[in-house]
Sequence to fold (640 residues):
Amino acid sequence: MLGIISSSKFLVRPSIITTIQNGTRSFTTLKKELPTVYEPLPKKRTGESVLAYLYQKMLNKYDPSGRRRILSKTLRAGDVIRVTYLDRTDVVGRIIAIKRGDNNVGSNILIRNKLNKVGVELRIPLYSPKLRNIEVIQKPEVRLARNKQYYIRNTRLDVQDVESSMKRKEAKKIKETERKDEKKKLRDQKAAKLAKTAAKREAKNAEHTSNSHVVEELSKKTEST
Amino acid sequence: MSGLLNNIGRNGLTSKSGFNLIFQRGAAQITSIHAIPYIRTPTSTINHSVEQSNLRKRLLGRPGVLGIKRGMISWFTEEGKHFAATVIEIDACEVVGHKTKETHGYFSVIMGHIDKLKNFDTRILPMFQNAGVTPKQQIREFRVRDEKGLIPLGAEIKADYFAVGQFVDVKGVSKGKGFQGVMKRHGFKGLGASHGVSRAHRSAGGMGGNQTPGRVLPGKKMPGRMGGKNATVFNNEVLFVDAEAGILVVKGQIPGPNKSFVKVADAVKAYGRSVNDLVREAAN
Amino acid sequence: MIYLKTLLNVVDNSGALVVECIKVLRHGPRNCAKIGDEITVVVKKARALQTDITGQSSNKVKRRDICRAVVVRQKAPFRRPDGSVVRFDDNACVLINKNGEPLGTRVSSVVAKELRELEYTKIASLAPKSF
Fold:
């Protein structure tokens, strides 16, 4: 630690002027020693800024997998998310605003929902150790303007009951798929019937006129229909 | 008779009847031989003296540390609680000198921080040479109770000087607010918003008396420069220390803007003792 | 931020619909009520009187009645210890008696979770949802 980097000596202005005989003037120089200057201590954090160092450390602590960091970049106002806490309780809501810290753990998400026709809002710290998971349920097809959508409160753009609307949508989806399945089933049944009748006819024809091209063609036609 | 009186000296006279006659305050007194004529009282102490005030002062057993305010962050505890915290950097804080009772009348540790490698004042260089440290940008003094608190010269004090969970006091210079009115500076109420108040909604109102006293009394709170003064925040909890990285995180806020210098020391209200206190504690 | 003259919705079946705060209890003169605080209110708007078969009204209170209430929702954002900030769209309360028991038998709408930790567990459990 205490290496000497400079112990230079320098000339101090003459303070005593002596006159020597023969009429010539001369002066004596007073050499004054400069104190020793010791080497500085080694730089901490290899010269990195304190806050950047600490942010990195905290992010690694509270977000070891890096998943939240990705979320903070990918999430946008308008997404519907479900936040699950460690005690398995969860909150659902649409994101109105995201406050992104400058690569630090101060980021938070503001979600809005309607419960019993009452608007509720919750600002959740993104890197809170109490959070278990943040799940994106839905991304909107058309996004509203602005990153911070505070203006949607109590307008026709406002969030509806997210959970029940999700349920409704799911129910609708299920119904649609059911209907599709039914249609498919019907079509299959029809096709099977046709095939059956065609096969029967073929068998009959084979009985009457064997190796006739005309019949073959006919049977082909029926099959294709 | 008059001749007798003339013969009486300052130390009294043994009369022919066997009484001790002591003359003090110019009057004759007759006292028994067993009486104690006077008691030597202890010399009175002057409370308004430096020595007495030093005994009364609540001082810490050890000095504090110099630091730089770096900014505020979000902090989570293990239980998931969340609050604001301040980051203090401790950059090459070393002991530069001592003051002792013999030389200065009190004990204190002189500390410096941030290595300064050029443009140094040659007059104070011998101090750094004596301590065996690099010249420092900032030098400050921490008063301690006795010589036990004098940390050896040249010792570097790192962030782990403070334990996580203990309380510290942080001293700094508050942010300058410029020339401010009484409402912001002293929290006055101002005048009414209406009821005939004209262009004086934020003014102070009355300044004092009338013909008596006929002047504004000294110390009247008035508009003026606000902030930029020494300020102390007491009992901030230490949340995190990293000695190698020179980082100290305390709960809550501390005075001054970012990059400003602060003094961090053990909380006086929690750990400070005066010499009188110590004597009292020892007696108990 | 509920203080003198604040209008609050009532979310129980006591009969009151809108009440006005006339006093914040157990607070300094300048402080305002927040969630879980008790206030004194005047009923400004009550449900129309409906007498059932027994001749008794289902309404426990009527207009101009003075009663106590506990704040269950507030518009002003408030902070929880875990750092989250909660805000509701309206100010709402539940009417209670002097012992802290609710006057109504039902709570019709969402209430704040804080009530559970305070001594209003009954209101919290009556509510369909807590947030």
In short: The two ends of chain B are 62 Å apart (CA to CA). Residues 275-283 of chain B form the longest helix (9 residues).
